[in-house]
Structures are given as structure tokens and as C-alpha cells.
């Protein structure tokens, strides 16, 4: 079999550039036929947005086909010809709708427009949602499936919702304040009351192998709202996440079923946060505006402005508005002041993750990752992709560009935190492009090769497009 070989995931010292060394075989060189020491004939993927293939703020047929589980399944098929992998595919086209690139601002940030989704058949609006009115878009369905798909990735699914009855039942739960997920609904027959945990139980029964990459959508509710929405972050919440992860993993590992568990990446690897890191953003703004103006955010009490520090992050979705003149009442006078660049018109708290908010959510992620590590190594005795230095584990963070000004190099192509132009992240500032999904799939492939004595070839990420639509 002709293919390329890849030595992925080597980090270069403490330099500003973390390098992923791609050691390719010479053209035409023979490589061994892929083999794997476990049965992967029915691979089951469990997770949320990343697993489903969400990209640029939407789900389309193309983004589903470029999801990391589907890319992984294609590589597994090379080792086991009878391997299958099914997904709840949308019709060709714009799917649920997505962000399209219009141009770039003077700062280099993308300006986007939303392409409407023809798959949207109905909308449910909750005018009293946290952070403002929220719209749930119900999507077209395929014929009621007799069996669940093998990709159980559900965008927007939170670990705290896995036992919510009717989460995918439009008849009972698609109301302004109901607990309803339109992506989960597409996995189920009409009016099906099953919980996500029940769906995992049913789908796992015929499965022979699994991947678990879940929990990012859980914490992004808090991050994307600048710390204003989402659950109360306390000990009880940390316990809930650990217990619910165990409930799902108990079903997946039943009977000794093999698989791979992935911990969450550091949140500040996501451009949603990293592009707006304190003084780095301030310097970028000063360069663009050719001045020395400081950047100001509201103090923790929301009463006055304070200069930003590197411990606080302006949400990337807010950055295009910084510097715009907006009306502010100062004393008895209304003044037009640049948003965020005048202490009297600081960036509002909902547009920033400040030090306290970052500390709280990073603690949640750290505790959740520790819980997953304990479950994998002690309870289930199976491989986990994490930040450990043990030879049996891999750091998923290595696959993600970790800050502005640094990059990872794959085959001479740079991957950075800049959406689209950086190749890894899409226009919504947190989900991957097809190339990003390939690097994530490669992290799983490397873990499979180490844990199960396989020789599955990695994916040539550079051969994939940088947009999914």
C-alpha cells in the first residue's frame, strides 16, 4: 500500500514557535499495510460540537464529512475493510447556516455575514434568555431512523443535560424555556423521549470501539457570555461533571469495549479568548490606531474603568467594536467616546473574561480533566489524550496553536490562532476547520497506535481545505 508516514507532535523547547515535525517518507516509498489490534468494525463517537463537525458557527453536510470522527473512521477503514461509520447527514448546501468571510478589518480580524440555513424549518425564541433573546433553530429531519448513527456528536450538548428527558423531543420540549436540542432531535425518531445517556446506551450495544471527547460546550456557555451565563461554578458542579462523565463512560466501556478518551484543551488556546489577551490586544490596537491609548475594561463591580492586564481576555467577537465612538453619559453630558479606549467608556463585563472569571472556569476544566485522567487510568485502564508526560498519553493542546504570535508548522504550513488564515480555527473563533479536524484526528490516531499496537497512517492535513463550506 502506498501512503505517507508521519511523525507528529514534537514540541520544540521554549521557543516562540511550537513545531509539529512532519517527517514524510520519500515519494512513492512503500509503507506497511495499516493494522490494528482491536476490532474497529463499528466505531462510535460521543461528544459535542467538535465531534459533530460544527464549523464556522454551523453544521453542513461538508462540515460533517470533515468532522474528526469521520476522518478518523476513514483511516480505520484502511486497517479493517468492513469498518462502518454512519452520521446524521444534512442535505447538501448551507445546512443550519454558517458564517461566511466578507473581508478583514484594519486589525486583521475577519468580518463575517451569516449565510441562512435552508435546513432551518422553524425557530423558537426565548426572549428572557440569559444575555438576551435566544433563538433555537429546528432543522429538517431525515426519515425516522431505525438505528442511531455512529456519530453521536451533538452541538451545544452539555454534560449536565445527559439525563434530560425529551431533550430531542420537539413535541414536549421545543418551547421558549424548554430544555431542547435540535441537533439531538435529528438523531432520534420523531417524538422520541430518550435522554442522551439512553441514546449512548443503545448505540454502544453493537459498537466495538469508541472515542469520547465531550465537555467543551459545557464550559463555553460561561465563556461566550463573558461569565454571565451558565451554571454556578462550585464544588457541586464539579462533582456533577465528573459523575455524568462516568455515567457516559460506564456505558461506552461496558464489557471491556476499547476506546480513546480525550481531555479538554486549555481554554486560552481558543482564539475566542487568545486573540483578546490583555496587553497583547492593547499593543495590537495601538499599532493599528497609531497611538498609545490604553485598553480599559469594567472593574469587577462594573462601576468604573480599569486598565486591562494579561490576566483578562476580551472576547474575540467583541474586538471589531473596540474604538468605535459610542454615547456615554459623563456627569450630565452625553459624550461620544471610543469603546474600550477611554477609561470613561470601558469594555463591559459581558464582553470580557476577567481574572476571577478565568480562574473559576479554568479550575472547572482542570478538575474535569483530572477526573477524566483518573477514570481512564484507574477505573477503565485505557488510553487518554492529555497533557501528561507519560509515553502512553498525548497532549491534545499540542495540536492547537497556543497563542497569538506562535504557530505550529505542519509540512511547512503554519497553523496559528488566527481564524481561517491560521488554518486551524474557523470563523466562529472556537471550532476547527477541516485541517484542524485532521490534526485532532491525528492526535487520536497517534494514541491508538501507541495503545493498541497499530500502524494507522496519519492524515495529510494540508491536503484538506481551510473552510468546510
Amino acid at each position: 500500500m502506498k501512503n505517507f508516514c508521519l511523525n507528529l507532535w514534537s514540541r520544540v523547547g521554549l521557543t516562540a514557535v511550537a513545531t509539529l515535525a512532519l517527517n514524510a517518507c520519500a515519494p512513492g516509498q512503500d509503507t506497511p499495510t495499516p493494522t490494528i489490534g482491536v476490532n474497529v468494525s463499528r466505531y462510535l463517537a460521543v461528544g459535542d460540537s467538535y465531534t459533530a463537525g460544527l464549523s464556522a458557527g454551523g453544521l453542513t453536510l461538508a462540515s460533517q464529512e470533515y468532522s474528526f470522527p469521520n476522518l478518523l473512521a476513514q483511516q480505520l477503514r484502511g486497517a479493517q475493510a468492513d469498518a462502518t461509520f454512519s452520521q446524521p447527514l444534512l442535505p447538501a448546501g448551507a445546512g443550519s447556516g454558517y458564517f461566511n468571510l466578507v473581508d478583514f478589518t484594519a486589525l486583521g480580524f475577519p468580518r463575517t455575514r451569516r449565510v441562512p440555513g435552508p435546513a432551518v424549518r422553524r425557530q423558537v425564541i426565548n426572549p428572557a434568555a440569559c444575555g438576551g433573546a435566544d433563538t433555537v433553530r429546528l432543522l429538517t429531519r431525515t426519515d425516522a431512523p431505525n438505528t442511531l448513527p455512529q456519530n453521536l456528536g451533538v452541538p451545544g450538548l452539555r454534560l449536565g443535560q445527559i439525563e434530560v428527558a425529551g431533550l430531542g423531543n420537539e413535541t414536549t420540549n421545543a418551547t421558549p424555556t424548554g430544555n431542547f436540542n435540535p441537533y439531538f432531535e435529528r438523531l432520534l425518531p420523531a417524538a422520541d423521549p430518550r435522554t442522551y445517556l439512553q441514546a449512548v446506551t443503545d448505540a454502544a450495544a453493537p459498537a466495538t470501539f469508541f472515542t469520547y471527547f465531550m465537555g467543551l460546550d459545557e464550559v463555553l456557555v460561561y465563556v461566550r457570555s463573558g461569565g454571565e451565563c451558565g451554571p454556578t461554578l462550585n464544588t457541586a458542579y464539579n462533582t456533577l461533571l465528573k459523575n455524568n462523565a462516568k455515567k457516559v463512560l460506564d456505558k461506552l466501556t461496558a464489557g471491556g469495549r476499547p476506546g480513546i478518551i480525550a481531555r479538554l484543551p486549555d481554554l486560552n488556546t481558543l482564539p475566542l479568548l487568545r486573540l483578546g489577551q490583555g496587553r497583547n490586544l492593547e499593543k495590537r490596537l495601538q499599532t493599528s490606531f497609531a497611538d498609545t491609548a490604553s485598553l480599559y475594561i469594567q472593574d469587577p463591580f462594573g462601576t468604573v474603568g480599569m486598565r486591562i492586564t494579561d490576566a483578562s481576555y476580551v472576547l474575540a467577537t467583541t474586538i471589531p467594536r473596540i474604538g468605535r465612538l459610542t454615547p456615554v453619559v459623563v456627569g450630565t453630558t452625553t459624550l461620544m467616546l471610543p469603546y474600550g479606549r477611554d477609561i470613561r467608556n470601558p469594555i463591559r463585563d459581558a464582553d470580557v473574561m476577567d481574572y476571577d472569571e478565568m480562574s473559576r472556569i479554568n479550575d472547572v476544566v482542570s478538575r474535569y480533566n483530572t477526573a477524566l485522567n483518573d477514570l481512564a487510568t484507574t477505573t477503565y485502564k485505557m488510553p487518554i489524550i492529555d497533557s501528561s508526560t507519560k509515553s502512553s498519553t498525548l497532549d491534545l493542546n499540542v495540536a492547537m496553536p497556543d497563542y497569538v504570535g506562535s504557530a505550529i508548522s505542519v509540512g511547512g504550513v503554519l497553523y496559528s490562532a488566527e481564524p481561517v488564515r491560521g488554518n486551524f480555527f474557523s470563523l466562529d473563533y472556537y471550532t476547527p476547520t477541516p485541517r484542524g479536524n485532521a490534526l485532532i484526528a491525528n492526535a487520536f490516531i497517534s494514541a491508538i497506535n501507541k495503545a493498541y499496537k497499530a500502524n494507522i497512517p496519519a492524515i495529510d492535513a494540508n491536503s484538506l481545505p481551510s473552510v468546510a463550506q
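The radius of gyration is 22 Å. The chain is about 25% helix and 15% strand.
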